[in-house]
Each structure stands twice: as C-alpha cells, then as structure tokens.
Design brief:
With 281 residues, the chain is α+β, with helices and mostly antiparallel strands. The chain contains three helices and 13 strands. Helix content is 16%, strand content 30%.
Length: 281
C-alpha cells in the first residue's frame, strides 16, 4: 500500500471534526501509561532498524520472528487508536468510503504507517515491488485476496498442461495480462496473527475490503520509491476461460487468475492525516 506523497492525493482539512489535543497530565499513572505505549512503538522501531538493511535484501528469519512477536503484541491503544475515532466512519454518507493513511515513521530502509478503513472501504489490488511487508490488523474484520505471480510453468504446484495452452500464449506477450496464483482469499479478524509478504511470495499483490471498521498497521521495507523503481502498480483480475479439461483456472488444488495492470482507479485515493499517537523516538 503506497505511502508516497503523490499517492496521498488529497488531504481534506475539516472533513473530520477531530477533538483538540489533550494537555499532558502530570499525574503519575497517565505518565506511566504514556511511557508504556511509547515503549511498544520504540521497540518496533528498533527491531525494524535491525531487520531492514536496504533495497535488495530480505530480513533474516530470526529478525522476521522478532518483528512478528512484537507486532502480534501491539494493541490499538499502543498507537493512540480507538474505534470511535472519526476516521472509521464515512463522513459523507452515500459516497464511497475513504481510506485514511497516517504516516508514523519513514527512512530510506523502511516505513511504518497506519491505514484506517470505514466499513465497506476498499484498498484495490496493488503490489509491493521488491518489498517485505508486515501487516497487523489492530481491530476490525476485512476480506483479503492476495496473489503471487506464476514465474515458471515448472513450479511444483503449477498448472502445466492442466490449464489451456492458450493462456500460456497470452501471458507470454510483454504488457499482456499475466498468470498469477491465488495465495489467500478469505477473512481476517482481529486479533489474528501478523501477516507477512515477501518480494515474490506470500501474496505480494493484495486487496482489502473492510467488513467493519478496521485499523491496519503496516511496516514496509524498503518503502515505496518511484525514483528507485519501486512504484505502486494496480491490477484487475480477468476471468480465465475454462480449459479443454474443464479446469476453469484450477489445477492441483491451486486457483489461477489473469491479472492486468491498470491505472490507479479514479475513485480511489488516500486521505492524509496527522499521526497523533506515541512517537518511536
């Protein structure tokens, strides 16, 4: 999910009637809770520094495990979030629900951000080129569908001759739709485990649809960068014509679909919002 400035295509001041910032209390109990919340984000930030070593790298397995354990333990309150915040309702009834993005931290090697989705809000099918991405659903329920490109007809679970050979000819042309296999198609409900996707596996292309108010904490490494060739691409799924054997896109228990690159949908954009929670440093 792109967090570059040119994808945050609109910030509507006054759209949300945000409450004024609360003055910091001098009471010991509130100070302690604030310190604990900041400690969780600081812990995540420090783990990211050790895990993400720059473009072209994937965090080693022990760092992935460390990151996953930290994210699994994170709660909405650790980031100053609650379901009654205005970001999780549609401020203009009758219009497409808008997704709000809060940037928490960004450097050359990684970025941390929060996505706020009202019910029925959609983040369309997009990719994460060259990235490892950790996603933690903090609260809510959403439908997720993710894909990986089919890179070889000789993959162990690949279609081989079980899919129509015409499909292989279509996908061989540059710029044409490409064959992808479905990695996941189902519902995530908090408090589910952190999901991880990799540059070529784990569902690098995915789309979300909120079934109820959702908050998603994303950690991406390296972050999107158009200048470095990591621009966000959008796709649409095309139906596979049934093969002669009647497989209809299924082979050996795996589902295959054609994905075609498209422009960013006209009715989709992020609203940028200031992150008001604890800071990682």
């Amino acid at each position: 999910m792109r967090i570059e400035r040119n994808l945050i295509s609109n910030t509507i001041d006054g759209l949300y009637d945000l409450p004024p910032r609360k003055k910091v209390s001098d009471k010991k109990g509130k100070k302690q809770r604030k310190k604990q919340k900041r400690a969780m984000l600081k812990k995540l930030h420090e783990a990211c520094i050790g895990a993400f070593l720059g473009p072209g790298t994937i965090p080693p397995s022990h760092k992935i495990q460390q990151m996953t354990l930290i994210l699994d333990d994170m709660k909405p309150s650790d980031l100053g979030l609650s379901e009654d915040m205005p970001y999780f309702t549609n401020p203009i009834p009758g219009l497409t629900p808008m997704v709000t993005m809060m940037p928490v931290f960004k450097c050359d090697n990684f970025s941390i951000c929060i996505f706020c989705l009202p019910p029925s809000a959609v983040i369309p099918l997009h990719n994460h080129p060259g990235m490892t991405v950790f996603s933690k659903l903090l609260f809510g329920s959403m439908h997720v569908k993710s894909y990986d490109w089919l890179t070889s007809m000789n993959e162990s679970s690949g279609p081989g001759s079980e899919l129509d050979s015409q499909v292989m000819e279509i996908t061989a042309s540059k710029g044409s739709p490409r064959l992808a296999k479905v990695h996941f198609d189902g519902v995530f409900t908090a408090e589910c485990n952190t999901s991880i996707l990799y540059p070529t596996t784990g569902g690098n292309m995915h789309c979300f649809r909120a079934l109820e108010p959702c908050a998603i904490l994303d950690v991406l490494g390296p972050p999107y960068s158009e200048a470095d060739g990591r621009d966000c691409m959008y796709y649409r799924s095309l139906p596979l014509h049934p093969s002669r054997s009647g497989d209809d896109g299924r082979a050996r228990g795996v589902v295959y679909e054609l994905l075609e690159e498209i422009k960013k949908p006209d009715d989709f954009f992020f609203l940028g919002a200031e992150y008001r929670g604890p800071r990682p440093m």
